[in-house]
Amino acid sequence: QVQLVESGGGLVQAGGSLRLSCAASGIISSINAIVWYRQAPGKQRELVAAITSGGSTNYADSVKGRFTISRHNARNTVDLQMNTLKPEDTATYYCNADTIQKGRRYGYWGQGTQVTVSS
User: Fold this and answer.
1) How confident is the model over 1-38, as pLDDT tens digits?
2) For 49-80, what is each residue's pLDDT tens digit?
3) Alpha carbon distance 26, 80 (integer Å)
4) Other residues' Cβ atoms within 10 Å of the Cβ of residue 109
5) Is the dihedral of CA 28, 34, 39, 43 positive or negative?
6) Can you count the helices (H) and strands (E) in the chain?
7) Which of 35, 84, 94, 107 has a 20 to 30 A CA-CA distance from 52?
């Protein structure tokens, strides 16, 4: 199994920055990718950014150029640096681990961290 704990959310004014962190524990070697998702009230959960074990990254169009995903293997964390925040970035942010264990695919979720951007 893999356990994920997000941190770093909070309240920030539009134009400001926040850095979210996703700390992973458990069978780290099984992680194929870490993905940040977000869900705003009344909306579907959407992919924000992803990073694979090989270091490839992917971003939603809405955050390209503003958000940066990075991983720190020594700390088993994946960070999401969010700059030039907009009110529409307000959501609960979740990290997800896509893993492969004994040939089968499993996904794990953290508990989420709230990001609120005021106008």
Assistant:
1) 899 999 999 999 999 999 999 999 998 889 999 999 99
2) 999 999 999 999 999 999 999 999 888 999 99
3) 21
4) 15
5) negative
6) 0, 11
7) 84
